[in-house]
Amino acid sequence: MIVLLIDQGNTKAKYAWCDVIENKKHQASGFFSSAPIIHSIEEQALVGLKPDRILMASVASEANQKAIKSSVQEIYPKLALEIITTPTQAYGLTNAYQAHTRLGVDRWLAMLGAKATTDKAFIVIDAGTAVTLDVVDKQGNHQGGWILPNVNFCAESLANRAGKIELKQLNPISISLGRVTEDCVYNALYASHIQLIKSQYNEQITGEKPLILLAGGDAQLYLELLQQEQVPAKIVTNLVFLGMLEYLSD
Ligand SMILES: Nc1ncnc2c1ncn2[C@@H]1O[C@H](COP(=O)(O)OP(=O)(O)O)[C@@H](O)[C@H]1O
Ligand SMILES: CC(C)(COP(=O)(O)O)[C@@H](O)C(=O)NCCC(=O)O
Ligand SMILES: [K+]
């Protein structure tokens, strides 16, 4: 069975084609198209790629979701787009939110993907439009999380409010003290994110040192900063898709 997976973020849409063999063995390919996603899917349809199922998770607006849905329907008129929403509990993972649907489905799926790769307690950091941090114990209980705005958005909104803060000269990313305005702004933001991650790593609310798994467009950057601080972390770029694959196993 050929399945098309779509992960619509607030900045980028990502998709993956995967081949589901014997109900549980999956091979996924073709990760990470940047928008416009429909154009890419259309091109692939033209060369004959046709999925048996299409699953989508979206944290973008309802309007965006509707637009994708109708475009997909035009390309593949016989297929219904299956939209994944956040449950209270599924596949061994329990959502910490009381209002369970308010937890972003990308956060849910990234945790589910992480859970599929380890039996240990873990922290998922998904660094995209927002930098989210979610803590899960080894029994699959989500402990809760943090949502931080992307560093660039914070810096830009500060510069828009402060007459003398200009962000002209961008230096390599670092968390050391700055000696020029740009470094003072950016380094402070990255330092605050890294210290928060470090604090959760050291806190061990799950009773053991958790694995730190990184995903999202800025994963590499966070990995480097964490490495400088001797905090072990690993990038698993396709965490959301790995989570979606769980939905294909029943
Ligand atoms: N080539 C790129 N195009 C767009 N964003 C990029 C790129 N490389 C890194 N980024 C960073 O990745 C972020 C988007 O990451 P992503 O995880 O796809 O976001 P989202 O899931 O919110 O759509 C951007 O905000 C930017 O900071
Ligand atoms: C926190 C998010 C904005 C992250 O989105 P992303 O950076 O992946 O585009 C998204 O998961 C979301 O809209 N969540 C709803 C609020 C919540 O999770 O509590
Ligand atoms: K994110």
UniProtKB/TrEMBL annotation:
Catalytic reactions of this protein: (R)-pantothenate + ATP = (R)-4'-phosphopantothenate + ADP + H(+)
GO molecular function, one term: metal ion binding
Active site: 106 (proton acceptor)
Location(s) in or outside the cell: Cytoplasm
Cofactor: record remark: A monovalent cation. Ammonium or potassium.
Gene3D superfamilies: 3.30.420.40
Needed cofactors: K(+); NH4(+)
EC number: 2.7.1.33
CDD domains referenced in this protein's UniProt entry, alphabetically: ASKHA_NBD_PanK-III (cd24015)
Pathway as given in its UniProt record: Cofactor biosynthesis; coenzyme A biosynthesis; CoA from (R)-pantothenate: step 1/5
Subunit relationships: Homodimer.
PANTHER family for this protein: TYPE III PANTOTHENATE KINASE
This protein's name: Type III pantothenate kinase
Organism from which the protein derives: Catenovulum maritimum
Gene name for this UniProt entry: coaX
